């Protein structure tokens, strides 16, 4: 059963998103107004070392007022590829430069409200280049064993959907 978007009117926009009001036709012919968030893509970087540890950030998110482990991530800048954005965010937030990046997965975390695409890349090499430029983004940067990921997810210490999906995928790939 397909819903049809018959057009959108802008409500608000800023550098992080556009909020539109869509005129939606339901399969039975009824119409409804539906808010839609149009957002630029987000790139994430998972760096895994020889000991099957992944580099994570311990962050507080003020909106949910929760702490948790996350992969370095951020928006794609003008003229930048997703791969370049993932590498840049990793360097800025962790002080580590990833080796060659491989696509891991793509997901849309909230398709009932937003078109926001999250693309995760991973590398099995990383080089420490210094302190994080964006140190204000996290309380800690640590190498966390991938084998602990399922327990950290179950305990709620990893709850960000894109990080959960990426890390559980890496656990499967690495046979953990």
Description:
- With about 180 residues, the protein is α+β, with helices and mostly antiparallel strands.
- The chain has two domains: about 5-40; about 40-175, Nucleoside Triphosphate Pyrophosphohydrolase.
- Helices cover about 20% and strands about 40% of the residues.
- The chain has three helices and twelve strands; from the N terminus they run βββββββαβββββαα.
- It has helices at about 80-95, 150-155, 160-175; strands spanning about 5-15, 20-25, 30-40, 40-45, 55-60, 65-70, 75, 95-100, 100-105, 120-125, 125-130, 140-145.
- A four-stranded mixed beta sheet has the order 7-4-10-9. Strands 1-2-3 form a three-stranded antiparallel beta sheet, with no helix packed on it. Strands 6-5-12 form a three-stranded antiparallel beta sheet.
- The mean pLDDT is about 95.
Short key terms for the protein model shown above:
176 residues; elongated; 4-stranded mixed beta sheet; alpha+beta; Nucleoside Triphosphate Pyrophosphohydrolase; 12 strands
CATH class of the largest domain: Alpha Beta
What is the gyration radius calculated from CA atoms? Answer: 18 Å
Annotated CATH homologous superfamily of the largest domain: Nucleoside Triphosphate Pyrophosphohydrolase
The unreliable regions are none
Q: Give the amount of beta strand, in percent.
A: 35-45%
Describe the biggest sheet?
A: 4 strands, mixed
Question: How many beta-strand elements?
Answer: 12
Shape: elongated
What letter string, H or E per element, gives the SSE order? Answer: EEEEEEEHEEEEEHH
Class by helix and strand content?
Answer: alpha+beta
What's the architecture of the largest domain, going by CATH?
Answer: Alpha-Beta Complex
Question: Taking all residues together, what is the mean pLDDT?
Answer: 94
From the 3D structure, determine the CATH topology of the largest domain: Nucleoside Triphosphate Pyrophosphohydrolase
Indicate the percent of residues in helices: 10-25%
Query: Between the first and last Cα atoms, what is the distance in angstroms?
Result: 39 Å
Strand order of the largest sheet: 7-4-10-9
Count every helix, treating DSSP H or I runs of 4 or more residues as helices.
3
Count of domain modules: 2
